[in-house]
């Protein structure tokens, strides 16, 4: 499966690391455009001094690790598309040009189902997206989550229970499923 990761799901570190970890496990192929990566990096400015620099370093690392994830510029495609927010047309264009099946985003209302269906696409919140992958490959998703949890615990110096960490990352259903797994 090919999935476009919108800037809003790349922005939160825990979520981004889980999404990339699951992709590294071979459960899907992530896609993005330079504009999506740029939106993510610019959005980090509000986190304070130095945050954008860190994000740009992470962008470089993602480009290196995932060279096939980059979908070429889609300006021509953008021009013929309609979405409620014209600023999101580039995301839809990336999905079309990249032959994606899904756009992973928190902003579901920006990607109406009737519009996406015309292009053989759907938009999905990251929680059900990851939960569906977990249901098909529990060990791989649990492993990716555990790696992120352990890193968060090491960096924070405080315990990071999985369910709480995932709830803060906008993944409450995945957290509940992992907690039930034990």
UniProtKB/TrEMBL annotation:
**Domain VapC50 C-terminal: from-to ranges:** 126-179
Q: Which Pfam families match?
A: PIN_3 (PF13470), VapC50_C (PF26343)
Species, as recorded: Albidovulum inexpectatum
Question: Know the name of this protein?
Answer: Putative nucleic acid-binding protein
Which residue ranges does the record assign to the PIN domain? 2-108
């Amino acid at each position: 499966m090919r999935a476009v990761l919108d800037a809003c799901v790349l922005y939160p570190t825990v979520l981004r690391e889980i999404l990339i970890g699951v992709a590294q496990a071979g459960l899907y192929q992530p896609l993005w455009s330079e504009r999506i990566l740029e939106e993510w990096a610019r959005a980090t400015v509000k986190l304070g001094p130095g945050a954008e620099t860190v994000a740009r370093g992470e962008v470089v690392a993602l480009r290196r690790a995932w060279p096939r994830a980059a979908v070429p510029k889609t300006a021509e495609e953008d021009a013929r598309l309609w979405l409620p927010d014209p600023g999101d047309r580039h995301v839809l264009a990336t999905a079309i040009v990249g032959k994606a099946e899904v756009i992973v985003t928190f902003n579901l209302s920006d990607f109406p189902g009737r519009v996406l269906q015309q292009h053989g696409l759907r938009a999905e919140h990251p929680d059900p997206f990851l939960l569906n992958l977990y249901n098909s490959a529990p060990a791989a998703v649990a492993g990716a989550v555990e790696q992120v949890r352990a890193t968060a615990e090491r960096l924070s110096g405080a315990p990071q229970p999985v369910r709480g960490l995932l709830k803060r990352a906008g993944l409450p259903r995945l957290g509940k499923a992992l907690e039930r797994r034990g």
